Amino acid sequence: ILVGACLGAMSTIDYLSTEEANRPSIAGAVLHSCNWELKADAMKCSSGINYQLFNKGLVIDTLHRIEKSYTEEERELKEEWYQEKGIDMEYLRKSKSIWDIEERFVAPLIGLSGADEYYQKVSPVNKCHKVKKPVVVINSRDDFMAPFDHYKLPEFVKNPNLVLWSTAAGGHVCFVDGLFPVTNYLDKAVPECAKLMCDFVEEGDDADK
To answer: pTM score, two decimals?
Structure first.
């Protein structure tokens, strides 16, 4: 059973959309907080109250991580590499949104023309129709980074292998359990989903015998 969250969930969908994933050793996947349509997700994170609550902090932290260097030599090598990739660091430092960073840094870093091409290339919604293994996706209705209405998209709805397990609350990846949480809801939900999937696969194997 494959398990992934957020970017890991996106990578899992990407893998499951390939022929290599259709081998018997892979029973299926349990994912949570998956972003399906990245352009819409970036726009939501960069607007309204989400801009103040989440976007500003994400941008500051991401820029810090991009520029972080432990030595002067490392800093110079990193800036030289970025320059070779066509990344304008001064322009990048003026970024105000996640879209800005993906337009000015992520896309050129991997040889793409811009954020729109990047979103088209990596968004799971463009690949989920190829998934042939059973997948349970756990998402909360109040996820600020992965709009819940994406589960109404035809690409998701039309694939019978994709099943949604929704919760009223949980945010993005958080899913804390209780008013003063010491546990995480996912600690119980993910193993339960995995067990149900294993039981389902074993029943199917028994029926084939």
So the answer is: 0.78
